[in-house]
Design goal:
Chain lengths: 272, 132
């Protein structure tokens, strides 16, 4: 990543949400066919993984055993889903950089250092798990020791809300880890996560705002029974890739449409 | 977080894409489909939001939605509103006033095969009991 700003202060700005979204639409024009096909394929694979996960997930009389077993199943299938979503991100990163696009981009993380992606997933999963664990245990403890349905409902709601906020904070902090690994295949998971955390400082709210700005389209997608997601997901994913390129300072140096930039250059020295 | 680059400082070439997208026409088409299927209740409730999504995406590298896209939004919103109103009216006004006993009686007659032409002629009056 040649265009990575030298100091941390340079990372704390981003272009306006509307500008990023306009650029995303520009980049997608002429590429909707491939993007929609890829989204359909990705959705199908993720649904299949989810279906298999549901088959393996079981309910036990012992709540603790059920919790441990189901978490293990979630980790196993979640790792596969994570690799697929990393491939999906790779496709849209290539689209933004005006590089060659094909469906095989989806399986890129399976070919190049899948261990790095899986370790990244495990670390983020573990961090999320540890942070949400107290809320989960408190909720289970409360359910087991209280019979008042109303108070159980309120506590469950509060715990889930706290879970959600904690997960959101962590997810936003590590949002750039995947594109960093895709750009720097020789970087370790920890280096990528640390870099993402540093680069997201000062950008979290803007990224959250951009993500939240899609809520209207997502609501419309729900009304179309999910059909609209075939077009809206590529739009959101392209915008996310542009956010990453903007933060690393590569956005203004992108090639205009129809100018190929050749093969992506790797920079193993970046983290040294 | 401020946008330190103004639009003028952008690499303007980034925003140029000679390719046209067909979303504006698709939005208009969805609007027309929604409008003509308005009385079927369910299709416009799915097709109209899809038309609005296409209209939003039809902007491409422009700030404004092109004319067919705007027309599409208008027709989609109209069809959606009318269809939703019909659905809400049906659910709140018509269905609660249906005489369920008469309906069960008719169902029994149909299953036994004893329903007469006069029964069918009087079906609406017997079935629907308007508010007093």
């Amino acid at each position: 990543m040649k265009n990575m700003p030298a100091n941390q202060a340079d990372w704390s700005y981003m272009k306006k949400s509307s500008s990023l979204k306009m650029l995303a639409r520009t980049r997608l024009t002429g590429n909707y066919g491939t993007s929609v096909s890829l989204t359909l394929l990705t959705g199908g694979i993720l649904l299949l993984i989810n279906y298999l996960e549901n088959i393996f997930t079981r309910s036990y009389e012992n709540l603790f055993a059920a919790y441990i077993f189901n978490t293990a199943v979630s980790v196993l299938f979640g790792a596969f889903s994570y690799l697929i979503t990393c491939g999906y991100t790779y496709f849209f990163l290539n689209l933004c950089r005006n590089k060659e696009l094909n469906i095989s981009n989806l399986f890129y993380p399976f070919r190049k250092h899948p261990d790095t992606f899986i370790i990244t997933f495990l670390i983020t999963f573990a961090i999320n798990w540890v942070i949400t664990l107290p809320f989960d245990f408190f909720r289970i403890y409360y359910i087991l020791h209280t019979e008042n349905f109303l108070s159980i409902s309120i506590i469950t709601l509060i715990c889930q809300l706290a879970d959600y906020l904690a997960t959101l904070f962590i997810t936003l902090g590590f949002a750039l880890a995947v594109p960093i690994i895709l750009d720097n295949p020789f970087a370790s998971s920890m280096e990528a996560l640390k870099s993402s955390w540093r680069m997201m400082k000062g950008n979290r709210w803007q990224v959250f705002y951009v993500t939240l700005s899609f809520i209207g389209l997502v609501i419309l997608c729900v009304m179309t029974l999910g059909i609209g997601l075939l077009w809206v997901t590529p739009y959101m994913e392209t915008t996310s890739s542009l956010i990453y390129l903007d933060i690393i300072g590569e956005l203004d140096n992108l090639n205009p449409i129809k100018e190929s930039s050749g093969t992506q250059e790797m920079n193993p020295e970046f983290y040294s | 977080m401020s946008d330190q680059f103004s639009q003028n400082h952008y690499n303007q070439n980034l925003y140029r894409n000679p390719k046209q997208n067909g979303f504006a026409s698709a939005a208009l088409l969805m609007g027309i489909i929604a409008f003509f299927t308005m009385l079927f209740v369910i299709p416009p409730l799915i097709v109209a939001p899809l038309g609005i999504i296409f209209a939003v995406l039809s902007r491409g590298s422009e700030k404004k939605i092109p004319a067919p896209g705007k027309a599409g939004i208008g027709v989609c919103v109209a069809a959606f509103t009318i269809s939703l109103s019909i659905t809400v009216y049906t659910l709140t006004q018509v269905i609660p006033n249906i005489n369920m006993d008469v309906l069960s009686e008719y169902q029994e007659k149909i299953s036994e095969g004893t329903v007469t032409e006069e029964d069918i002629r009087n079906l609406y009056e017997d079935l629907y009991t308007p508010d007093d």
